[in-house]
Specification:
Helix content is 35%, strand content 17%. It is α/β, with parallel strands linked by helices and 243 residues long. The strands form two sheets. Strands 3-2-1-7-8-9 form a six-stranded parallel β-sheet, sandwiched between helices. A three-stranded antiparallel β-sheet has the order 5-4-6.
Length: 243
């Protein structure tokens, strides 16, 4: 077993409260692409941050939903399944208190069985009417070109945090991270603000062991006690096998 992975296994065994922070890297191992690299925009000379924004949704809801569905492959979402990383995190709950802070909007942590999940950027699986508050699920969203409220006929807004919106559950996520006795980042390059400040807050305010698992080094690697630059599935397999 890789010495760093062996050290992580020891830390997991000693911990009773674990906080796991996940990014796109855990979902790509389920076959979900990094949405920011998605196509469809080039032909309209648009940027991801311009389209996935509250202002674009308000000004052009029809085109917003067309591109939103294409970028996030909405029709394919139910075909994606949790992977070894998702299941490993969920299984930790059998013996420990585990909180998940995720940048992802795909719901795969819950599908794997995790119960304490802070979806910082919301979820792609629901949308709501801003006028009456009614919520609609994925099946409804995929059936029509422009998802609209069945009562108000207003264009629905996805429950995803768009550019211009406030992120969700930030204070609760920080509290869970600070109260943990092991903090693990899995599959995040930690480039998205303000949530990339959470590891810095953990380091600043506590003596919590901190581990990052990411295929590539990140700017914030120096914050962590242990850096593992391997695929998540490979690390989890080693942790479970002990080899």
């Amino acid at each position: 077993m890789n010495m760093q992975v062996e050290e992580l296994k020891k830390r997991i065994g000693e911990a009773s409260r674990i906080c796991v922070f996940t990014g796109a890297g855990i979902s790509t191992e389920s076959g979900i692409p990094d949405f920011r690299s998605q196509n469809g925009l080039y032909r309209k000379n648009l940027e991801f941050s311009d389209v996935i924004s509250t202002s674009f949704y308000q000004n052009n809801p029809v085109l917003f939903w067309e591109l939103f569905k294409e970028i996030f492959r909405v029709k394919l979402l139910d075909e994606y399944e949790p992977n070894l990383g998702h299941y490993f995190i969920a299984e930790l709950e059998e013996e420990k208190t585990v909180h998940v802070i995720t940048q992802n909007i795909d719901g795969l942590h819950q599908k794997a069985g995790s119960t304490n999940v802070y979806e910082i950027h919301g979820t792609i699986k629901r949308a709501h009417c801003q006028k009456c508050g009614s919520e609609f699920g994925l099946n409804f969203l995929t059936k029509v070109e422009l998802p609209s409220c069945t009562s108000c006929e207003e264009a629905l807004k996805p429950n995803v945090v768009l550019f211009g919106d406030s992120i969700h559950w930030f204070e609760e996520a920080v509290e869970a991270a600070l109260q943990s006795d092991l903090f693990i980042v899995m599959g995040s390059s930690l480039q998205v603000t303000p949530i990339n400040q959470i590891p810095l807050l953990v380091r600043k305010h506590g003596q919590v062991p901190m581990v990052i698992i990411n295929k590539e080094p990140t700017y914030y690697d120096y914050v962590f006690d242990n850096q593992i630059h391997l695929p998540i599935g490979e690390v989890v397999t080693a942790l479970k096998s002990g080899k």
